[in-house]
Amino acid sequence: DWSSDVCSSDLSGVNRLNRIIGHINPKNAPDSATPSNAACENKIEYKMGTAESNARKWNGWGFNDTSFLLNDKTDKVEVTGNRYLISGSVLPKFKDFLVETMKIDQVDFCPSQSLDDILRKAPARTINAEFLDHMERVIPNLHISITAKDRLHHSHGLTCYELMKLRQGNIDRWVDVVAFPKNSKQCEMIVSLCNKYNVCLIPYGGGTTVTNALQCPVDEKRMILSVDMQNMNNILSVDKISMTAHIQAGAVGRELHEKLAEHGVMIGMEPDSFELSTLGGWIATRASGMKKNRYGNIEDMVVSATMITSIGTIKRDAEVSRVSIGPDCSQFLLGSEGTLGLITDAVVKVHNLPEKKEFAALVFHNFDVGINFMYDVQKSGQIPASIRLLDNSQFFFGQALTPEDNSYMHGIKKWIEGQYIKFSGYDKNKLVVVTVLFEGKEHEVRRQKASIFSLMRKHKGMYGGADPAMKGYLLTFVVAYLRDYACDYYFLAESFESSVPWGQVATVCTKVKEYLREKMKDLKGSLIQARISQIYEDCATVYFYFGFSYKDAKRDPLDIYHSIEDGAREYLMSLGGSLSHHHGVGKIRKRFMPKAISDVGIEMLKGIKSKIDPNNVFGVNNLVDF
Fold this sequence. Notes:
The radius of gyration is 25 Å and the shape is globular. 33% of the residues lie in helices and 19% in strands. A hairpin with a 4-residue loop joins strand 8 and strand 9 (244-248). The strands form 5 sheets. It has a 7-stranded antiparallel sheet with strand order 18-15-17-16-20-21-19, sandwiched between helices. It has a 5-stranded antiparallel sheet with strand order 8-9-13-11-12. The chain is of the alpha+beta class and 626 residues long. The model is unreliable at 1-29 and 31-49 (pLDDT under 50). The protein starts with 13 loop residues before the first helix and ends in a 14-residue tail after the last helix.
């Protein structure tokens, strides 16, 4: 959807016609002289909702009020709810995309088992009566749940593998008890008692992990206690002189954004799981967000953090970002993935709310040109808050999600766009799109726009308007819902990411996609996509998406999925890519850890673990086999 508000002062030829119908020609990008007016202001609003509307799905991604559904009467896919820009819309092209590209036959429905059926099969609990009695005596106001529903909810994350097992009712090991502490003192007492009575403790934040990190070890014989941090979600203080905030680990991204905005500040951390994931989860996985160019990754944001271990609490005395007091022990918290302790709170850097926020979509002839453009943006020093390159398949995937618009003027605009693309020499089967988010002070945004559009012209690109870029960023929060919809029709889909040196980016993108294509050539239908979502001085973050129809597969679909993903990851690493950029390791990637950090690195991790958690209280068994 190229539709956009008119923000350009250069309106000649075709542009005059487009202005008449309220559309900007993609060729003419606004430059630094673009007038500032209301039409140019695009905002993403995060809907807080009520407790009821924010109820989570038990067998999929996100909130109960949002789903993709096929309307039997119209034979078109619709989006329920009103949470997102696309909500309440009819998607006239999406079913055709599913049928033609992904070979999804929407006559064959593959529903999940019902929640009631699964709960009736809940495994018996392993109980440590002494532990529970003692905990009830010393922490009388602690909320504890033993319901089958809470146990199930805390026994998995959101990998493709886990959701398939969940829908089939085959979660192998459930947690036995769930605790909901309200403060750090309660957390300290819980950890101490777990150590005393040999109970396995698994921290739980937003539950959005896609690395099997919350999967209970099948061979764990001890009672497993899940500690849910949702009640520890407060901003304890905001220091607008030092520009820091002290925040509890259970704070969810969307709520944190809203609460900090009341103080006129923001943290700037916005991963794709922003609506559901927590500060503690970001720290535990060394997370990144879509605006890292401006605000940094989580390790750049954290000034200090507190972790309760089985032998005591790790906390640095001075809450400042730079000290020289030996190795920084707080670094062990980042990426610890629940194996060393329970993260309870952190002091993080905050920033003033941006004066300006603008979007832009840029079109290039092919993916290689797009890579060269992204590289030049990085070297220019004028890097916007977020910039992402989508390959041709992702571009048309986004087009298939365009809501229905039957207006006469919309039809004229679409015809003009098609003709303009055609006569500009663009091959629709090769063109790619870069979506850009400018954010900051007005003069910064102006300077970045001038640089970006100058580089766009250097690489013979076209400006595609602001609106499609804004919609693209909003779709980030919706895409995961599509995986659940595809699952209903015998289609498995997943993503994986890597940091790749600039010199290898083009090779990695080409060869890994070829590898996936070869591995899925005998399957009924497949989906293979790539995008560059982050850029650094030395490397870029490459995301791969793949999926396949397993309706007529001769093997277990989860076996097929694991063989493809493991093989692709190993191949990617052989080409120079990293094991992970921001998803972490969990259990799904830990067999690759010796190659990623060396055998000596593995021994270092084991040494730290043996000293601060000698009884393996934090026995989730992520990263390496402890």
